[in-house]
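Notebook, p. 212. Picked up where the previous page left off. The plan for this session was modest: take the two constructs that came back from the sequencing core last week, fold each one, and keep the raw output in the notebook itself so nobody has to go hunting through shared drives later. Recording the first one now, exactly as returned: residue sequence, then the C-alpha cell string.
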Amino acid sequence: MKVIILGTGTSQGVPVIGCRCETCNSKNPKDKRTRTSAIINVNNSNILIDTSVDFRQQMLSNNLNDIDSVLYTHHHVDHIFGMDDLRQITQRFDKKIDIYGRKDTLDELRITFRYVFDKQLIRHNSVPIVKFHDKSNRKFRSGVTEIMPIEVHHGNIKIFGYRINDFAYITDASAIDEKELAKLKGLKVLVLNALRIRPHPTHFNLQQAIEISKSVNPEKTYLTHLTHDLIHDKINQTLPKGIELAYDGLEIDL
C-alpha cells in the first residue's frame, strides 16, 4: 500500500494571491501547497480522496494517469472542483469511475456537476463517466478494498474521513466524537488537518491537531490542510516526536 499526498493547502492554497508573508515568499518547495487531496494505491487499485481544484496539475506533477475510484470527504469547492478532469481518465481507459461519499455530499455533487448525467453528453463520452454510491457511516468496499468512514464535524456540518487498513485520512475537521476516535486506534499513519496556529471555528488548529494525534497515538501523524501561518521547516522543529507537517508529493509506504 502506497499513499501520495497530492496537496496540503487550504482553499486559498499557498502562496496566497497577493501575499508577501514569509511562507508565501519561501523558496522551500515544501511551502508550495496545492489544495488538499491524496491518492492511495492498494490491491492494484488507485483510490483518490477528493478531486481538488488542482487535481489536473497534481496528477501531472506526480506522473499519475489513472484513478479507479474517488472518496469524497465533503462538497466544498476546494475538494470537488477538479471532478471534470476525471474525464481524461474515463476517455483514455474507456471505463467508469466509482464515486463514494455521504448522501448529502453526493447530492451537492449531483447539483454542481449536473451535466455529468446528461445522456447525450454521456453517449458522446464528453463528460466524466462515473457511478455514484451514497454511503452511510458503515464499512464498505471499493473493489476488494475495505473502507471505513470516519464521521467528523466540520463546523456545523458532518463530513467523512476515511480509514484503509492502517492508514487514515481526515481533513477539515473541527471535532471528532469519541466513538469515531475509537476507529482510529492502532494506526500506523494518520493524516490530519491543522489549519493554522490561531483557533478556527470549522477546522482544527495546530495545537488541537496535536492533541488529537496524542489521543489516537498512531506511529506517525502528518498534518495537512495548512495555511500560510505554518512555514514548513520552522514549525516542524517545534512539533512532538512522530508528528510532522505533510507536503505536496510526500510518499508514504505502508
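Okay, moving on. Second construct, recorded in the same format:
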Amino acid sequence: MAKYRKLDDLTFYSMLGVLQGGMWLQNDLETYLSGFGISQGRFSILLSVLESEATLIQPSKLAVQLGRSKPTITKMIEKLIKDELIHKKTSVGDRRGKILTLTEKGEDLLNRIIPGYNLRIQQMSASLSDEEKNSLLQILSKINFLNSEREIQIP
C-alpha cells in the first residue's frame, strides 16, 4: 500500500468545499452562456478585450488569468476572430504583441449576455453581506494556487 500524507479533515473539507462550490458556480454560468453559444472561457476573453480598451493583450497573461494554457487561449482567440467577435491588429510598439478589439457583433453579444450574467451572480451572492463578500475575497487570496502568477484580485 502506498504511503501518503493524511490531511486533517478541516483542511480536506475546506479545500473540497472551495473546489465543489467553484464547480457549481461555473456549471451554472456555463449553462447560462450556452444559450448564447459561448463558453465561460471565450466570454472571459471578450470581457478582457472590453476592459483592455484596445491596449496590448498578451495571450500568456490571459492564460494565467483564466487558468488555461497559452495554446488554448490562442485557439480561443482565433475562434473569436473567426466568429467575427473580435479584431486582431499588430501592436505598433511591439510587432510581436497583438491588440484585440471587439467588433460590433462582439459588443452586441456582450450587451445581450451581461445583464443576465450579472443577475445570476447577484442571485448567487444574495445571502452574503458586503462584509462577508470582503472576507471571502480575503480568504480566497490566501490560498496558494501553486503558481506565483495566480492570485485573486482584490479591488
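Notes on construct two before I forget. The chain has six helices and three strands.
Flagging for discussion at group meeting.
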